[in-house]
Amino acid sequence: MAGERVDAEKAAEMVGGLRRMFESGRTKEYEWRMAQLKSIARLIDEKEKEIMEALREDLGKPEIESYLHEISMAKSACTFALKQLKIWIKPEKVRSSVTTYPSTAEIVSEPLGVVLIISAWNYPFLLSLEPLIGAIAAGNVAVLKPSEVAPSTSSLFAKLLPEYIDESCIKVVEGGIPETTALLEQKWDKIFYTGNGKVGRIVMTAAAKHLTPVVLELGGKSPVIVDSNVDLKVAAKRIAVGKWGCNSGQACIAPDYIITTKSFAKELVDSLKITLERFYGKDPLESKDLSRIVNYNHFSRLTSLLDEKYVSDKIIYGGKRDEKQLKIAPTLLLDVPHDSVIMKDEIFGPLLPIITVDKVEDSFAFINSKTKPLAAYLFTKNKKLEEQFVKNVSAGGLLINDTVLHLANPYLPFGGVGESGTGSYHGKFSFEAFSHKKAVLSRGFGGEAKARYPPYTPAKQKILRGLLNGNIMALILALLGWPRE
Ligand code: NAD
């Protein structure tokens, strides 16, 4: 049934079949999980060319970008899971408490069951595979619904996944709103959604009907604060590569806007212009290193941001566009009105407004006056400012003196906070996103404390109160069978 378009009836049938597979216990076996993960790693190696081609068709991504940001990252997520799985699945022994003495206690990670993964178009390979790796590592059966906005990658999944992994436990459903709606009507044990907040709300509402937990990997306006105490050449390169080197800014943690001081803005702008010209030449629309905009809808959304009244005259670099190629040149804007759409909505494209403040510390209040971003960046050599940034700015993740790179550390959770999302994944966090941490306490038949049982005489109550207050004498007395009455 892989890759089949579904309606509510077919979706129900599919979920029913998957639930039976889950109940058979097959996916819980360590060997099954390892075999699937190994096959995914093999798929990535063997089908690299086809994956590259699909990404080129869907997004016009430069090959090296597809390799760096999708293929190699999916491969390392898989290799990491393969290396760590034995450790992740081990029950975690924890201490016993006085009140449960004598006993042993552990936390057992168990798969949640039948999970749904809905992914987005901008990194269509990675954003589908990385959660799926987590779901499989944790021992679930799963349905993957790739984005219809990246149709080549979606149909590649529908074709390849059944060739490589256990088709009876992992399904691919292709399609857009009707298919996703049909899927969302079903009862899932977890829904993992990547995309915009508007659909995030639809997903959460559907999940609430069944009390299904969700991970929502959403977006937001990720700010970059640039202090004057920086290595400006390095900062400009790292901002530019995180913005235009990531799918032309169509990345959830691409810098959305810059905040700097009024007195430093000119120096920063000059440095960004020099960097951009070095990276993409005098005519960036012809550069092979810039992705195009995904489709006409997004192209016209972005150009209308630029054409808004009181915004278009704030363009200080770039602004050129080519509708045929769906390309927009890297564009800098200085001091756009704070109530313009470009400063209200997530940009998700190659436009970078720069906002100025009197003091760099004023940036924190500006950021905190908006909804919580998925990422926030600070460039500074000032350690005190760095500390204030970490203490005062709430975002999914923070990165100091670079952009985007924090997502490449599998020991860090990746996810949003507030309107930028809920839950996280990457590395062990992907395994945990699809696991239930089951508390297991085990006791023998000894260690009977009479005081536990009615009737609660004053002497028993005294022992119980002592016990609950951590009094060791009370514990000894309780274990010795006191009160003797
Ligand atoms: P999209 O259009 O591909 O939509 C995402 C998924 O939602 C798709 O699978 C689509 O079929 C489904 N969908 C769309 N409309 C629906 C509806 N009405 N009902 C049910 N399902 C529906 O992607 P998008 O939303 O344009 O993605 C861009 C957004 O995603 C940005 O906000 C970006 O910041 C965010 N994003 C976040 C992350 C992250 O990891 N946090 C990663 C990538 C993108």
Summary keywords:
binds nicotinamide-adenine-dinucleotide, six-stranded mixed sheet, about 475 residues, seven-stranded mixed sheet, single chain, Aldehyde Dehydrogenase, Chain A, domain 1, about 15% strand, Aldehyde Dehydrogenase, Chain A, domain 2, alpha/beta
List the helices and strands and how they pair.
Elements: H1 8-23, H2 30-46, H3 48-59, H4 63-89, E1 92-94, E2 104-111, E3 114-118, H5 126-137, E4 141-145, H6 151-164, E5 170-172, H7 177-184, E6 190-194, H8 197-209, E7 214-217, E8 223-226, H9 232-243, E9 257-261, H10 265-280, H11 296-307, E10 315-317, E11 321-322, E12 327-328, E13 331-334, H12 341-344, E14 351-357, H13 362-368, E15 375-379, H14 383-392, E16 397-400, E17 421-422, H15 428-433, E18 435-442, H16 458-468, H17 472-479
Parallel strand pairs: 3-4, 3-6, 4-5, 6-7, 8-9, 8-15, 9-14, 13-14, 15-16
Antiparallel strand pairs: 1-2, 2-18, 7-17, 10-13, 11-12
Helix pairs in contact: 1-7, 2-4, 3-4, 3-6, 4-5, 9-10, 16-17
The protein binds nicotinamide-adenine-dinucleotide.
Residues 118-122, 127, 145, 147-149, 176-177, 180-181, 194-196, 199, 202, 217-219, 252, 346, 348, 374, 416, 421 line the site of nicotinamide-adenine-dinucleotide.
Total of domains: 3
- From the alpha-carbon coordinates, what is the Rg to the nearest angstrom? 27 Å
Shape: globular
Strand order of the largest sheet: 10-13-14-9-8-15-16
**CATH H level, superfamily name of the largest domain:** Aldehyde Dehydrogenase, Chain A, domain 1
CATH architecture assignment of the largest domain: 3-Layer(aba) Sandwich
Q: Note the beta-strand portion.
A: 15-25%
Given helix and strand content, the structural type is: alpha/beta
**Cofactors, ions, other ligands:** nicotinamide-adenine-dinucleotide
Distance between the ends: 69 Å
How would you sum up the major sheet?
A: 7 strands, mixed
CATH class of the largest domain: Alpha Beta
